[in-house]
Amino acid sequence: MTSDEDDKKNADCSGRVSALEKSLALIMSHLGQQNQVLDQTVKRLDKLERATGLIAEAAMKSADNENAAHVWEGFSNASKIFPKNRTVIFWGRDYFGDNIKYAYLDFYEYAEKNDIECFFVTYQEQQYQQLKAAGLPCLPRKVEDWTAQDTKTVLGAKVLVLCNVFYPVEGKDFIQYALTRGAKTIQMWHGVPLKEIGLECMRPPTTYGPRNAEVLGASGVFDVFVGGSMAAQADWAGRFSFDEYAAIGYPRTDVFFRELAQNDLINVDVNALGVLKDANQNKRPVIVYAPTFRDHKMGAWIENSKIEVLAKHCKSQGYVFYVNLHPFEQEINAQLQKHYPCIECISAHTDIYPILKYTDVLVTDYSSLAVDFLLRDKPMVFYTPDHDEYVDKARGLIPGYEQYMAGERVCDIDALIKAVDGAVGFLQAPDADIYAAAREAVRQKTFDHNDGLAAQRLRGVIAKALDKD
Predict the structure, then answer these.
(1) Using the 8-state DSSP alphabet, how is residue 412 labeled?
(2) Looking at the predicted structure, is the pLDDT value of residue 136 above 80?
(3) 432-451: per-residue pLDDT in tens?
(4) Which residues, other chains included, contact 404 with Cβ-Cβ below 8 Å and sequence gap of 6+?
(5) In this structure, what DSSP letter does residue 118 have?
(6) For residue 161, what is the domain's CATH number?
(7) Neighbours of 367 (CB within 10 A)
(8) Element housing 53 (H / E)
(9) Among 150, 300, 330, 464, which is least packed, fewest CB within 10 Å?
(10) pLDDT at residue 64 tops 80
(11) Measured between alpha carbons, how far is residue 273 from residues 149, 269, 308, 345 in Å?
(12) Residue 455 burial by Cβ neighbours in a 10 Å radius (0-12, 13-18, 19+)
């Protein structure tokens, strides 16, 4: 074969290879396009499946809500027509403490001797276990665990005792709520406020979420509202709606006047309590810092309070110092103690009143604890380092709130330390206490009774409601 023929064959082969390569490239390109189309199709299918799932979930929730509404209406009507008996339900709040704890513990003993049944209702496992361990009557935590007899018990309860917002906020506990709609309600609330509460909390209607609107709607009507004095009736009537007013005082303060019983120690930080009792016996001043919460800045504000400086000062002076944050903010206890080892916190979501019994100086701000602490007739210091921001961004303060601040008011840490030292001095020289007269004046306005018998008087209020048609 000649050289020209070889060249021709080589050229022909190269052409054919090139043509095959072009064909293969076209095929691969086509396959790539097909894969892209397939990928897009798969993604569309995924989106469609997710959308279908969301639609189905929404439909199920809608059906559940519709069913819940029917259940609510049925139970509410049943509660209003079900025959009532001598049964009293105590409705717990988010921890076992406050008025509801001491009212229940006192009335339970009274009920046993007077042919009355009483039960505690809680939606928290810890509270349920605490009460069961103490042998106290309470309904199962989960309504799914209620028997037919439990349902009958709640439907037949003639009196419901409260100390907090009573409404199935955001749909929670609506069954328990509906089953008690026919009971007479006694509302003790959980503190004499310096902040606006209940019907005072007005805002433009478009700013309300479901929770805020439901809480506003839970401001009554109550059959009986419990207060500390007759002079306060008009103030409470501006916050809540009620038919009768009972100026009997608050069961939570009864422990200030007597020795602590065994059940009083349920849900109490017994370690801190032991430290305080020991300090009292050894004449070491006990300082407790108990501020209220900040609606606009939950927990974060404490970092700027410089309270750790006071803690270090108290340690250097031999004072015992504890911090008790509001229950809404106590989740940061561990973080606070990690950053500031000098700070000791009262255990979260525990009952503070046995602690206050052994407190010598209360440092607070706008907390209702200051009003109850008047019954101890001990010095108080009001520390408000963020007052302008609080007034501007948090919940409003009631008109004339300053009249309840029967103690020195300070707004920086240096002034706070000086005021605390001054208050300790008043403990040692009561005649020099320049705020004693102010405390007495506010106490007389706020409390008609100063005897530690509020729970006993509450028995009479409940017994009257049981006997009333």
Answers:
(1) S
(2) yes
(3) 999 999 999 999 999 999 99
(4) 192, 194, 370, 371, 442, 446
(5) E
(6) 3.40.50.11820
(7) 21
(8) helix 3-81
(9) 300
(10) no
(11) 40, 6, 21, 12
(12) buried
Of 217 and 421, the structure prediction assigns the larger pLDDT to 421
Same domain membership, residue 235 and residue 157: yes
pLDDT(375) > 90: yes
Distance CA 105, CA 459 (A): 11
Q: How confident is the model at residue 58 (pLDDT cuts 50, 70, 90)?
A: very low
Is residue 366 assigned to a domain? yes
Check pLDDT > 50 for residue 49.
no
Number of domains in the chain: 2
Among the listed residues 96, 110, 89, 229, the one whose alpha carbon sits nearest the alpha carbon of residue 166: 89
Say yes or no: 278 and 186 in one domain. no
Give Cβ neighbours of residue 61 (< 8 Å, ≥ 6 apart): none
Domain that includes residue 388, residue range: 268-446
The residue behind tokens 């009736």 is: 233
CA angle (168, 173, 175) in 5-degree steps: 105
Strands 222-227 and 117-121: unpaired
Q: Where do we find the tokens 């108290």? A: 314
Amino acid making up residue 305: S
Both tokens of 271, joined, read 């370690």
pLDDT at site 55: 37
231 and 297 within one domain? no
Residues 462 and 414 in one domain: no
Are 290 and 363 in the same domain?
A: yes
| pLDDT (tens digit per residue) in 11-43 | 566 666 566 566 656 655 665 555 565 566 555
